[in-house]
Every structure is written in C-alpha cells, then in structure tokens.
Amino acid sequence: MKKKDNGKQKQWSGRDSKYINAALFVLPAVLLVTVFLVYPIILSFKYSFTDWNGVSEEYHLIGLENYRNVIASSEFKTLFSNTFYLIILYVPVLNIMAILFAVIIYDIGRAANFYKVVLFLPNIVSMVVVGFIWRTIYNPATGPLVYLLEKMGMENLIQDWLGQKQTVMPALSAAIVWFAVGFYVLIYLGGLSTVPEELYEAAAVDGINWWQKLWRITLPLIVQSVTINIIVSTIAILTLFDLPYVLTQGGPGYASQTMALMSYQYAFKAMSQGKAMAMAVMLTLITVVFAVAELFVLNRKSSD
C-alpha cells in the first residue's frame, strides 16, 4: 500500500510541478496586463463617477453627473456623427482597397514582395510623423498636392482641405487609409494563401473572368480575414486620437473631433478627469457593442 501511495505522490508531484512551471511562465504577463491594463480600467471607471480634476488629492462622488454633462454638451452630437462618418467612410473604403491590392499582389508573382514593402512602409512610421507629412501635403500654399493640381490645370480644386468643414473629414480619412492599408493587405494576403490553387485553375477552364473569380471564389474563402479586418479597422477608427490631434486639433470647430480626442481635451485642457473618464468609458462600451455586432453579423453571413 505504501508503494502505491508513493507512486501516486510522485505522479501528482510531477503534474503539480508542470502546472507550477507553466504558471510561473505566465505570471509576468498576467502581472503586466493587470498593472498596466486592468487596474487603469478599474480606476477610469471609478473616477468617471467623481469630480476629480486630475491634480488634487480630494474628490467627491457625484454619481452619473459626468455622463449626463457629456451627453448634454453641445459638441457630443458632433462627436458622435464624426465617429459614425469615419466608420461609414473609412472602414468600407479601406477594406475594399486592401482586398483589391491583396488580390493584385497575389497574382503578380515575383515582384509581390516589393509591393508588400511599399504598401506596409507607412506602418513603420509614427502616426505623429504621418500627421506632419499630410499637413505638408495638404498645405494650401506650398503643398505637393497644390503643385500637382496646378500642373494638371485644376487650380479650381485648390482649397484649404484641413480648414473647411466640408473637406476635413475626407482629407483625414485619406491620410488614415494611406497609413493603414498595408497592414490590412498583409492580413488578406494571409487569407489568400489558404485558397486552393485548384479552384482558380478550374475557374480558368470554365472561362470565369477576374471579377467573377473574386466574387464567387476568393471572397467566400477569405471571409475570416474579412471579419478580422472589419472589426480591427472599426476599433481603430473608434479609438482614433493621434492623427486628428496632429493634423487638425479637432478643428475647424468640432468638425474633425473624435471621442478619444475629446476625452484628452477634457482631461488636460478642461482639467476634468471625471468627464474625461466618463467619455472613455462610453467610448469603450460603444467599441465593444460595435465589435460584437459586427462579429455576430459577419459570422452569421459566413455560416449562411
């Protein structure tokens, strides 16, 4: 009996040591996530119910007052419409361009790596640098875009693209697409690499053209990549801060203001951390709702 017990103890001690080793490997990552992600989220939620100004040690609980003030503010409707405008304009345009670029690059062959590098190159540049690049491009006096339009005899199109409410959001979207499209192209290329070549060969024998091949074969088989890219691009646009901050500071007026940028201005210009945290919590909830809704719709379509 003792020998059997010793065998069981050795067996369990071996299993325990394996689990302990695994836990020790995971523990640093868990601590980092807890300290730098979970704990700040909890604090943000807590301070959203206070009148803390971000400096003093004293603050008071004021319930939902910050949320009511944010929603009732004159700029909130504009922020909300700007966010939805960017989602409607940016997400479809970005993903359509990324799919087309990915399909074209996939069919090129040897030169594909060169085009991958060219498209992905903006992603290795800081978003702040991207902002300064596009401020230079859009400069209505000396920008390269002005020079190009003059050479093409299209002077009537020259205007202050970042200084007018009608043009600032399309101009901002163009800069974001230029920066981000390479990343999404790589994800689509990964999806295309899983499509069996035999299907394309059979399609060529049947005389299917390029558009039919894309619509009937490629898109249904890379639906997982489409789902990932739509959700990631939606989250990216909802939390957009640095590019509008560098390009326009949210102007003119609130024409290019985003919810993330407004949260920053509440925190560091209005010195109202409570309202800033309330805006951040609302932005988080909106992002989660959008992501879950898109995941549900796209998964349902793919299963059909």
TrEMBL record:
ABC transmembrane type-1 domain span: 80-294
A matching Pfam family: BPD_transp_1
Biological processes annotated in GO: transmembrane transport
InterPro entries: ABC_transporter_permease, MetI-like, MetI-like_sf
Gene3D superfamilies: MetI-like (1.10.3720.10)
Subcellular localization: Cell membrane
Major subcellular site: membrane
Residue ranges of the TM segments: 20-42, 84-105, 117-137, 168-189, 221-241, 276-298
GO cellular component: plasma membrane
Membrane topology: Multi-pass membrane protein
UniProt keyword list: Cell membrane, Membrane, Transmembrane, Transmembrane helix, Transport
Family indicated by similarity: Belongs to the binding-protein-dependent transport system permease family.
Protein name listed in UniProt: ABC transporter permease
Species assigned in the record: Hungatella hathewayi
